[in-house]
Design brief:
Length: 317
Amino acid sequence: MAKKKKKDEPEGHFGDALLDDLHERLQGTTENGACLVFHGSATFIEFRNKFTCNYRYQGYEQAKSHTAIKNTLHGYMTGIEHERSKAIKDRGHIVTSAYETDSGGMKPGAYCIDLNFPNKGDWDVGGPDRDITRLKYNGRSTTTIKKGHNFTRETWPYWNNAHHLISKGTFKNMILNEGPKISNIIQKALLTAKYNIHHKKNVLLMPQDKEVAQILGLPRHLVLKEEDQQEVSKQCTSHPIYDRLVRETMKGLRDILSEYRELCDPVKDYPDGHPIPDVNLDKSKLEELSEELLNLILGMSPGAPLDQQAHRRMSGS
């Protein structure tokens, strides 16, 4: 059932106020939302906030329903035995990528330095099959991962990110670069078409820890402060080279927005104060890009950060 936007509710667009009513946030479903930017909370603790704009909820539902994603996230038992994980297994524990902040704390604050190897079910979507208690990084206090609550927090069962395949910031900035009138027309058309930047098709749960990523056979989300990267700088909050790949790949954001611009150009000179013109834009082009990016990431080298692999792909090395 649709939930109408309250007066104090953050808006799901970044253009003219006339677009306010087109933002659609629905409760209890992943479908039929209309949202173009991040707003509000994305917490999924205790399975709260099941609404269309909550990308952790969307990523969780995608991991449950998408066979390739689920098989990959559930492949850790085989991954531990894989040759690429031999050094980790010989050591006897998994070193996380948690790092010291400039203020002397640790990021993430409720995490740990080392992880025990998982038992069957411990890292599953919908797992673990039991409560798991572990020490925090300070070695004194503990945290308990509740039975069945994996991926409802960024550190359960390991440090993870609900990654937007088409990055929300890149998406916003490229639309704004079209200028205010074209930008408004594109936004209205996409909101009318029920495009949701947070829909599960555009979200992938990804490991942040390098060694967890190696075990899973996935790339890791960010470079962070690991010492293994080449060609790219340390990045703890963003992946600028991956974002450039999203923009510049064939049939990527640049090409899609070029097609949108051509369709919007004939009506771009509407008078100020008048309704934003109606243009039909095909949201499936964006959804197809998300699918292409998903397949690309699932085929990337285990453990390496997105930026490093995007750099090598774009340079042809």
